[in-house]
């Protein structure tokens, strides 16, 4: 929009000059301050107010009036998340969540969670508004920002004569080997990457074990080698295994018309999961499930189900809790595995202390029922008792990650 001024063009460059024919008026301090504020507001929109008429300022004149040189500013943008004090605020807000965990004040809990979300959004701006967000993306942002606290907390611990271990690296991070080989000349390259979770393709009717095995199979990809070939194959394999394994099921995808669609195909949820690394075969137990309720990806609701915190994962009563916002109800693992077949979105598996070393021979791994029976007959295993604190810490990490981030984001 172009606003024209009846005055001559020369008046545009001398707008602060008072015309000789203008009457002399007396202005109070309050009126003068109000006028200055009005002029500053007009400057923000590239306008200058004079006698209730708005005239667009030329770019060079705006720069002159705001005492800035156009296109010559070398000032770097400061990331709010890296400003001194932001990490302390982040940590304090997270500890507020821990402290109010057993509180019965629902309103206070809501305020604490919203405050934490606002702090997360300083670095992850997609969470600044109140619209529906993705739980997997939010969990990833929280874990990444928690890892960024390591230098600060390590320095603080050192001053106290202590050692800080990042809980994300201690319980969730694992290393994978990515091997890529050319289909023509056979040239191969190998890289190692750290992960906090894996995202699995949804295979209708398949179990989580089968979807994980599909992730680890060889896949062909377009990759131009120096020999001129355009295709290669790559394969991932575990090098190290975490104490708590997070698996994300890809239930949402974009159509060719960029419409976000939810896949409601059922998957099979079993209590046990077997993983193989370069050192051992390890047994994992499903301890928590985050589910997305709703027909589409642009709306819906998140709930969380998890093993009862007061019982062991091998509890014969199979006691679980279902978290739906502020409503907590008792349920069983068998019920959760059945009801979440079409809604399971994020799965948390806890590593068990019993593992089978790779010896080149095939052995059947015991089921949870067999493990319980053996323990009841022979007593507690020494390896379990010596690692009880580590196992308990891993379980609490999985429960906190699952229950803390479920619900409407």
TrEMBL record:
It holds the Pfam family UCH. Residues 1-39, 56-85, 369-409 are annotated as: Disordered. Residues 20-32, 383-395 have a biased composition (Low complexity). GO terms for molecular function: cysteine-type deubiquitinase activity. GO terms for cellular component: cytosol; nucleus. SUPFAM superfamilies: Cysteine proteinases. Residues 33-352 form the USP domain. GO terms for biological process: G1/S transition of mitotic cell cycle; protein deubiquitination. Keywords: Hydrolase. Residues 58-72, 369-378 have a biased composition (Basic and acidic residues). InterPro entries: Papain-like_cys_pep_sf, Peptidase_C19, Peptidase_C19_UCH, USP, USP_CS. This is Ubiquitin carboxyl-terminal hydrolase 37. It comes from Channa argus (Northern snakehead).
């Amino acid at each position: 929009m172009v606003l024209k001024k009846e005055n001559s063009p020369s008046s545009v460059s001398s707008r602060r000059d008072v015309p000789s024919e203008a009457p002399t008026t007396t202005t109070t301090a309050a009126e003068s301050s109000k006028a200055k504020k009005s002029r500053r507001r007009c400057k923000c929109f590239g306008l200058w107010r004079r006698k209730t008429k708005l005239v667009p300022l030329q770019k060079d004149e705006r720069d002159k009036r705001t005492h800035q040189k156009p296109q010559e500013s070398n000032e770097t943008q400061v990331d709010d998340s890296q400003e001194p004090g932001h990490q302390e605020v982040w940590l304090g807000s997270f500890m507020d969540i821990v402290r109010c965990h057993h509180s019965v004040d629902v309103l206070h809990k809501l305020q604490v969670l919203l405050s934490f979300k606002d702090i997360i959004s300083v670095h992850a701006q997609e969470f600044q508004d109140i619209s529906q967000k993705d739980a997997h993306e939010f969990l990833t942002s929280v874990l990444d920002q928690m890892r960024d606290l390591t230098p600060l907390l390590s320095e603080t611990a050192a001053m106290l004569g202590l050692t800080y271990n990042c809980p994300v690296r201690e319980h969730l991070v694992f290393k994978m080997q990515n091997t890529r080989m050319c289909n023509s000349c056979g040239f191969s390259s190998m890289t190692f990457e750290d992960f906090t979770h894996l995202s699995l393709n949804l295979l209708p009717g398949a179990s989580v074990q089968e979807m994980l095995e599909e992730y680890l199979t060889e896949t062909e990809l377009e990759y131009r080698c120096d020999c001129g070939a355009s295709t290669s194959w790559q394969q991932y394999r575990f090098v190290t295994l975490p104490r708590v394994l997070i698996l994300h099921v890809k239930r949402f995808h974009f159509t060719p018309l960029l419409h976000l669609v939810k896949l409601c195909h059922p998957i099979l949820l079993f209590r046990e999961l077997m993983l193989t690394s370069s050192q051992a075969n390890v047994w994992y137990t499903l301890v928590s499930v985050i589910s997305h309720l709703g027909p589409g990806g642009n709306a819906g609701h998140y709930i969380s189900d998890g093993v009862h915190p007061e019982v062991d994962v091998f509890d014969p009563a199979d006691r679980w809790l279902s978290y739906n916002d502020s409503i907590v109800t008792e349920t069983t693992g068998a019920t959760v595995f059945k009801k979440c077949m079409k809604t399971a979105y994020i799965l948390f598996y806890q590593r068990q202390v019993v593992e089978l070393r790779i010896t080149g021979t095939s052995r059947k791994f015991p089921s949870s029922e067999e493990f319980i029976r053996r323990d009841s007959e022979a007593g507690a295993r020494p390896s379990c008792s010596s690692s009880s604190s580590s196992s308990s810490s891993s379980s609490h990490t999985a429960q906190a990650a699952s229950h803390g981030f479920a619900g409407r984001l």
